[in-house]
């Protein structure tokens, strides 16, 4: 991927030099060979820090939220899943399309960094867990594309979801209570989510206080189920929430279930794939099904 990295540096340097943009958001190497981190470049000479490798799994779209009111345009590098969240943010009017110069990079799939611990550079690593069910390796929105488009990926059966769906109601309850009991309510899943963009989260509200501070299965369940409902039809499947969870909760399992139900009930296109299609919970149609009435 070194050629991609060099092209990123060249285009970023040019855009900063000619004043097209005032900030570039990409990736750079961390302290470990299997860690790449978000990079924020505002000087042309710093563009050489940019990289694209097997560990650029961060969805950079989230970092636009705190920079949407800054002067000048922003260049952001996006993979397939990142581009879907970017479309969602534009649809939600969290950032204006004209504020962005988007550079797409086809994604071959990231590697599992946790499997690299204790190994030497160049070790053969499995595909990152967050990439397992990805069907969008190519960006869906961009002003410029770097590299050749990746082959389409076939949709795989969600075996884990199917297994949970086959459980009895009591078994499902026990399964999720066990998962939620380990949650430490750090809110990392919320904070990293690119389409979790409320200016004030209901879980931070003190008047009224929707959620207490105690860590117990009841309140943990309320947090995760409420957040999953808020994400229904809006989750783009980037998997960042589950990747950053320090307790290893299957956060995406809830999101995938709600995504499946919304797409089935409302015949909606997958979130963040069509700019003209609003998320199911963000609009109302006169022909919406009302079987629940």
Verbal overview:
This protein has 293 residues and is α/β, with parallel strands linked by helices. It has two domains: 2-145, no CATH class; 159-282, no CATH class. 30% of the residues lie in helices and 9% in strands. It has helices spanning 2-17, 80-91, 159-165, 169-180, 188-192, 217-231, 240-244, 251-266, and strands at residues 23-29, 36-41, 74-78, 100-104, 144-145. The chain has a five-stranded mixed sheet. Helix 4 packs across helix 6 (217-231) and helix 6 (217-231) packs across helix 8 (251-266). It is globular and about 60 Å long. The model has no long low-confidence stretch (mean pLDDT 91).
Set out the fold topology:
Blueprint: H1 2-17, E1 23-29, E2 36-41, E3 74-78, H2 80-91, E4 100-104, E5 144-145, H3 159-165, H4 169-180, H5 188-192, H6 217-231, H7 240-244, H8 251-266
Parallel strand pairs: 1-3, 3-4, 4-5
Antiparallel strand pairs: 1-2
Helix pairs in contact: 4-6, 6-8
Features:
alpha/beta; 2 domains; five-stranded mixed beta sheet
| Proportion of residues in helical segments | 25-40%
Distance between the termini: 54 Å
Regions with pLDDT < 50 over 5+ consecutive residues?
none
Mean pLDDT: 91
Short description:
The chain folds into 2 domains: 2-145, no CATH class; 159-282, no CATH class. It is 30% helix and 9% strand.
């Amino acid at each position: 991927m070194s050629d991609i990295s060099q092209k990123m540096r060249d285009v970023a340097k040019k855009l900063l030099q000619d004043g097209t943009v005032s900030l570039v958001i990409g990736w750079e190497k961390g302290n470990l060979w299997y860690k790449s981190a978000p990079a924020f470049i505002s000087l042309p000479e710093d563009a050489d820090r940019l990289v694209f490798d097997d560990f650029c799994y961060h969805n950079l779209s989230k970092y636009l939220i705190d920079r949407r009111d800054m002067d000048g345009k922003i260049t952001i590098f996006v993979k397939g899943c990142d581009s879907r969240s970017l479309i969602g943010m534009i649809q939600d009017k969290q950032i204006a399309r004209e504020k962005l110069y988007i550079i797409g990079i086809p994604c071959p799939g990231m590697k599992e960094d946790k499997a690299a611990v204790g190994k030497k550079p160049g070790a053969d690593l499995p595909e990152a867990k967050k990439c397992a069910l990805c069907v969008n390796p190519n960006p869906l929105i961009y002003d410029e594309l770097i590299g050749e488009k990746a082959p389409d990926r076939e949709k795989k059966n969600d075996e884990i979801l199917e297994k949970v769906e086959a459980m009895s109601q009591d078994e499902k309850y026990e399964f999720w209570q066990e998962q939620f009991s380990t949650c430490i309510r750090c809110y990392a899943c919320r904070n990293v989510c690119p389409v979790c963009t409320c200016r004030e989260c209901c879980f931070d509200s003190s008047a009224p206080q929707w959620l207490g501070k105690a860590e117990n299965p009841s309140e943990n369940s309320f947090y995760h189920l409420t957040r999953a409902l808020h994400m229904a039809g809006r989750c783009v499947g980037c998997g960042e929430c589950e990747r950053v969870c320090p307790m290893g909760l299957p956060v995406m399992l809830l999101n995938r279930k709600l995504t499946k139900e919304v797409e089935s009930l409302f015949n909606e296109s997958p979130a963040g794939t069509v700019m003209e299609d609003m998320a199911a919970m963000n609009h109302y149609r006169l022909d919406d099904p009302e079987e629940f009435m």
